Amino acid sequence: MKFRHEHKHYINYMDYVVLRSKLKAIMKQDDHTDADGAYQIRSLYFDNFRDTVLNEKIDGINHREKFRIRCYNNDFSFVNLEKKTKINSLCSKILAPITQEEAEAILDCNTEWMAASNYPLIVELYTKMKSQGLRPKSIVDYSREAYVFKTGNVRVTIDRNIRTGLLSTDMFNPNLPMITAGDSQILLEVKYDNFLPEIISNIVQLESRRQTAFSKYAASRIYG
């Protein structure tokens, strides 16, 4: 499991406009972006009846993990199961491809097939659904701009229009009603391996903007 540094900052719209211009001049845009330079992400997060994932985030537990199912641009032919592990400011993500039908079976808690999967991550989620009571819990939608820089394996993302499906698990409904999650902040995320090149550091260091531990999943639970 490979861990990377991850830092998040709230920014305002003027920050966004300036950053976007500078990032486009130095970094390459992610290949998945559309004509407007962004793409849509929908994630469905798992938790148990004790809300362990949520409470560990709120309590600032240094070592925690979360499972989610993710798709892009309402393209349900490409779906991933992901597990994100965080230790202090270091993060790691592993994933396994699943079909829409498999994802829908998981949403319906039809899970016995998962035990025989060739993907260890699917087997792990099955085990934790059985032993820890993990269940599909909350959907988050947002628009992302992503920029990459080869040196340091840097990835800078700007997430906007973060919305929640109000505890709905109807992930494959393109018309799912959504509302703004929290204060509708714009979120800057910077991820890199062992070092952050100075040319990128100079762009993303915003003296007036505080670093944050913002969690999209926690924001999606603000209403229940």
Automatic annotation (TrEMBL):
Residues 3-220 form the VTC domain. It comes from the Bacteria. Gene3D superfamilies: VTC, catalytic tunnel domain. It holds the Pfam family VTC. This is VTC domain-containing protein. It comes from Acetobacterium tundrae. The lineage of its organism: Bacteria, Bacillati, Bacillota, Clostridia, Eubacteriales.
